[in-house]
From TrEMBL:
The keyword Transferase applies. Keywords: ATP-binding, Kinase, Nucleotide-binding, Serine/threonine-protein kinase, Transferase. It comes from the Eukaryota. It comes from Bambusicola thoracicus. This is Protein kinase domain-containing protein. SUPFAM superfamilies: Protein kinase-like (PK-like) (SSF56112). The keyword Kinase applies.
Length: 214
Protein backbone atom coordinates (compact mmCIF):
# COMPACT_ATOMS: atom_id res chain seq x y z
CA UNK A 1 0.00 0.00 0.00
CA UNK A 2 1.48 3.31 -1.11
CA UNK A 3 1.65 6.33 1.24
CA UNK A 4 -1.04 8.19 -0.72
CA UNK A 5 -3.35 5.20 -0.37
CA UNK A 6 -2.74 5.24 3.38
CA UNK A 7 -3.59 8.94 3.43
CA UNK A 8 -6.79 8.32 1.50
CA UNK A 9 -7.68 5.53 3.92
CA UNK A 10 -7.06 7.82 6.91
CA UNK A 11 -8.97 10.67 5.15
CA UNK A 12 -5.89 12.90 4.96
CA UNK A 13 -6.24 12.85 1.17
CA UNK A 14 -9.08 12.10 -1.19
CA UNK A 15 -7.46 10.81 -4.39
CA UNK A 16 -4.54 8.77 -5.66
CA UNK A 17 -3.56 7.56 -9.12
CA UNK A 18 -1.76 4.70 -10.85
CA UNK A 19 1.59 5.80 -9.49
CA UNK A 20 0.71 3.90 -6.32
CA UNK A 21 1.15 0.73 -8.40
CA UNK A 22 4.80 1.66 -8.96
CA UNK A 23 5.25 1.78 -5.19
CA UNK A 24 3.68 -1.68 -4.99
CA UNK A 25 6.11 -2.88 -7.65
CA UNK A 26 8.98 -1.69 -5.49
CA UNK A 27 7.59 -3.60 -2.51
CA UNK A 28 7.21 -6.76 -4.60
CA UNK A 29 10.77 -6.51 -5.92
CA UNK A 30 12.05 -6.01 -2.40
CA UNK A 31 10.25 -9.15 -1.21
CA UNK A 32 11.37 -11.20 -4.21
CA UNK A 33 15.02 -10.34 -3.65
CA UNK A 34 15.12 -10.53 0.14
CA UNK A 35 12.27 -12.79 1.22
CA UNK A 36 10.64 -10.25 3.56
CA UNK A 37 8.72 -6.97 3.16
CA UNK A 38 10.30 -3.54 3.62
CA UNK A 39 7.50 -2.25 5.86
CA UNK A 40 5.90 -4.08 8.78
CA UNK A 41 3.85 -3.32 11.86
CA UNK A 42 4.05 -5.31 15.08
CA UNK A 43 2.80 -4.19 18.48
CA UNK A 44 4.69 -6.99 20.21
CA UNK A 45 1.68 -8.63 21.83
CA UNK A 46 -0.36 -11.69 20.94
CA UNK A 47 -3.02 -9.55 19.28
CA UNK A 48 -3.84 -11.97 16.47
CA UNK A 49 -2.54 -9.65 13.76
CA UNK A 50 -0.31 -12.46 12.43
CA UNK A 51 -3.39 -14.63 12.09
CA UNK A 52 -5.31 -12.05 10.09
CA UNK A 53 -7.21 -10.54 12.99
CA UNK A 54 -7.66 -6.79 13.41
CA UNK A 55 -5.26 -4.85 15.61
CA UNK A 56 -5.47 -1.03 15.47
CA UNK A 57 -2.00 -0.68 17.02
CA UNK A 58 -0.30 -2.94 14.47
CA UNK A 59 -2.22 -1.28 11.66
CA UNK A 60 -1.18 2.20 12.77
CA UNK A 61 2.43 1.08 13.09
CA UNK A 62 2.31 -0.32 9.55
CA UNK A 63 0.74 2.89 8.23
CA UNK A 64 3.34 5.02 9.98
CA UNK A 65 6.15 2.88 8.58
CA UNK A 66 4.76 3.29 5.06
CA UNK A 67 4.15 7.02 5.39
CA UNK A 68 7.65 7.61 6.71
CA UNK A 69 9.00 5.63 3.77
CA UNK A 70 12.00 4.41 5.75
CA UNK A 71 13.50 1.05 4.86
CA UNK A 72 16.93 -0.53 4.70
CA UNK A 73 19.03 -2.97 2.68
CA UNK A 74 20.63 -5.07 5.46
CA UNK A 75 24.03 -6.37 4.37
CA UNK A 76 23.33 -9.90 5.58
CA UNK A 77 20.57 -10.25 2.98
CA UNK A 78 21.48 -7.61 0.39
CA UNK A 79 25.26 -7.80 0.08
CA UNK A 80 24.98 -10.14 -2.91
CA UNK A 81 22.23 -8.07 -4.59
CA UNK A 82 23.40 -5.85 -7.45
CA UNK A 83 23.47 -2.10 -7.21
CA UNK A 84 21.07 -1.91 -10.16
CA UNK A 85 18.37 -3.82 -8.31
CA UNK A 86 18.73 -1.63 -5.24
CA UNK A 87 18.70 1.47 -7.42
CA UNK A 88 15.45 0.45 -9.09
CA UNK A 89 13.78 -0.31 -5.77
CA UNK A 90 14.97 2.96 -4.25
CA UNK A 91 13.50 4.89 -7.20
CA UNK A 92 10.15 3.16 -6.76
CA UNK A 93 9.82 3.37 -2.97
CA UNK A 94 9.78 7.16 -2.92
CA UNK A 95 7.43 8.99 -0.57
CA UNK A 96 6.71 11.63 -3.21
CA UNK A 97 4.69 9.93 -5.97
CA UNK A 98 5.80 12.53 -8.51
CA UNK A 99 9.43 11.49 -8.10
CA UNK A 100 8.84 7.77 -8.71
CA UNK A 101 9.80 6.14 -11.97
CA UNK A 102 7.00 5.69 -14.47
CA UNK A 103 6.17 2.29 -15.93
CA UNK A 104 8.00 3.24 -19.13
CA UNK A 105 11.07 4.32 -17.16
CA UNK A 106 11.05 1.03 -15.26
CA UNK A 107 11.18 -0.88 -18.54
CA UNK A 108 14.15 1.25 -19.62
CA UNK A 109 16.03 0.83 -16.34
CA UNK A 110 19.46 -0.83 -16.75
CA UNK A 111 18.59 -3.59 -14.27
CA UNK A 112 15.53 -4.55 -16.34
CA UNK A 113 17.33 -4.19 -19.65
CA UNK A 114 20.43 -6.06 -18.52
CA UNK A 115 21.11 -9.78 -18.48
CA UNK A 116 20.33 -11.90 -15.46
CA UNK A 117 23.42 -13.03 -13.51
CA UNK A 118 24.42 -16.66 -13.41
CA UNK A 119 24.31 -16.90 -9.64
CA UNK A 120 20.91 -17.78 -8.19
CA UNK A 121 19.24 -15.88 -5.39
CA UNK A 122 19.02 -17.46 -1.94
CA UNK A 123 15.43 -16.27 -1.61
CA UNK A 124 13.98 -19.81 -1.35
CA UNK A 125 16.37 -20.56 1.51
CA UNK A 126 15.44 -17.32 3.23
CA UNK A 127 11.76 -18.11 2.89
CA UNK A 128 12.33 -21.44 4.61
CA UNK A 129 13.58 -19.68 7.70
CA UNK A 130 10.91 -19.38 10.33
CA UNK A 131 11.45 -15.70 10.88
CA UNK A 132 11.12 -14.76 7.22
CA UNK A 133 8.14 -17.02 6.70
CA UNK A 134 6.47 -15.46 9.71
CA UNK A 135 7.22 -11.97 8.42
CA UNK A 136 5.69 -12.78 5.05
CA UNK A 137 2.66 -14.30 6.76
CA UNK A 138 2.34 -11.16 8.83
CA UNK A 139 2.66 -9.02 5.74
CA UNK A 140 -0.10 -10.99 4.01
CA UNK A 141 -2.24 -10.74 7.14
CA UNK A 142 -1.68 -6.98 7.23
CA UNK A 143 -2.74 -6.66 3.61
CA UNK A 144 -5.84 -8.75 4.23
CA UNK A 145 -6.79 -6.72 7.29
CA UNK A 146 -6.36 -3.44 5.43
CA UNK A 147 -8.37 -4.75 2.47
CA UNK A 148 -11.17 -5.77 4.82
CA UNK A 149 -11.28 -2.32 6.36
CA UNK A 150 -11.17 -0.60 2.97
CA UNK A 151 -14.04 -2.79 1.77
CA UNK A 152 -16.04 -2.04 4.91
CA UNK A 153 -15.41 1.67 4.46
CA UNK A 154 -16.62 1.56 0.85
CA UNK A 155 -19.75 -0.35 1.88
CA UNK A 156 -20.49 2.17 4.63
CA UNK A 157 -20.10 5.07 2.19
CA UNK A 158 -22.40 3.40 -0.36
CA UNK A 159 -25.00 2.71 2.32
CA UNK A 160 -24.80 6.33 3.47
CA UNK A 161 -25.30 7.60 -0.10
CA UNK A 162 -28.30 5.32 -0.70
CA UNK A 163 -29.97 6.19 2.60
CA UNK A 164 -33.04 8.47 2.05
CA UNK A 165 -32.93 11.94 3.55
CA UNK A 166 -35.71 12.46 6.10
CA UNK A 167 -36.59 15.99 7.17
CA UNK A 168 -38.71 16.36 10.28
CA UNK A 169 -40.47 19.57 11.25
CA UNK A 170 -39.09 20.99 14.47
CA UNK A 171 -42.45 22.49 15.50
CA UNK A 172 -46.02 22.92 14.36
CA UNK A 173 -45.18 26.39 13.10
CA UNK A 174 -43.18 25.01 10.15
CA UNK A 175 -45.64 22.31 9.12
CA UNK A 176 -47.20 22.87 5.70
CA UNK A 177 -50.97 22.79 5.14
CA UNK A 178 -52.55 21.06 2.14
CA UNK A 179 -52.65 23.39 -0.89
CA UNK A 180 -56.46 23.49 -0.90
CA UNK A 181 -56.55 24.74 2.70
CA UNK A 182 -54.07 27.58 2.32
CA UNK A 183 -55.27 31.15 2.78
CA UNK A 184 -54.23 32.07 -0.75
CA UNK A 185 -56.28 29.21 -2.22
CA UNK A 186 -59.31 30.18 -0.15
CA UNK A 187 -59.08 33.82 -1.27
CA UNK A 188 -58.90 32.69 -4.89
CA UNK A 189 -61.94 30.47 -4.42
CA UNK A 190 -63.98 33.34 -2.90
CA UNK A 191 -62.89 35.68 -5.69
CA UNK A 192 -63.86 33.16 -8.38
CA UNK A 193 -67.27 32.63 -6.78
CA UNK A 194 -67.94 36.36 -6.62
CA UNK A 195 -67.03 36.79 -10.27
CA UNK A 196 -69.32 33.94 -11.26
CA UNK A 197 -72.29 35.52 -9.45
CA UNK A 198 -71.64 38.90 -11.04
CA UNK A 199 -71.42 37.36 -14.48
CA UNK A 200 -74.72 35.54 -13.97
CA UNK A 201 -76.50 38.71 -12.95
CA UNK A 202 -75.13 40.54 -15.95
CA UNK A 203 -76.48 37.91 -18.37
CA UNK A 204 -79.95 37.44 -16.82
CA UNK A 205 -81.07 41.09 -17.05
CA UNK A 206 -80.96 41.43 -20.86
CA UNK A 207 -82.86 38.19 -21.28
CA UNK A 208 -85.69 39.48 -19.11
CA UNK A 209 -85.91 42.73 -21.07
CA UNK A 210 -86.15 40.88 -24.36
CA UNK A 211 -88.98 38.78 -23.02
CA UNK A 212 -90.91 41.90 -21.93
CA UNK A 213 -90.58 43.46 -25.39
CA UNK A 214 -92.00 40.38 -27.07
Amino acid sequence: MAPEVVEAFSEEASIYDKRCDLWSLGVILYIMLSGYPPFVGHCGSDCGWDRGEACPTCQNMLFESIQEGKYEFPDKDWAHISFGAKDLISKLLLRDAKKRLSAAQVLEHPWVQGCAPDNTLPTPIILQRNSSAKELTSFAAEAMAVNRQLTQRDEDEEEEEERPIIIKAASRAVQLSPPSESQLAQRRQRSSAAKAVAAGQHLVAPLVLVADQA
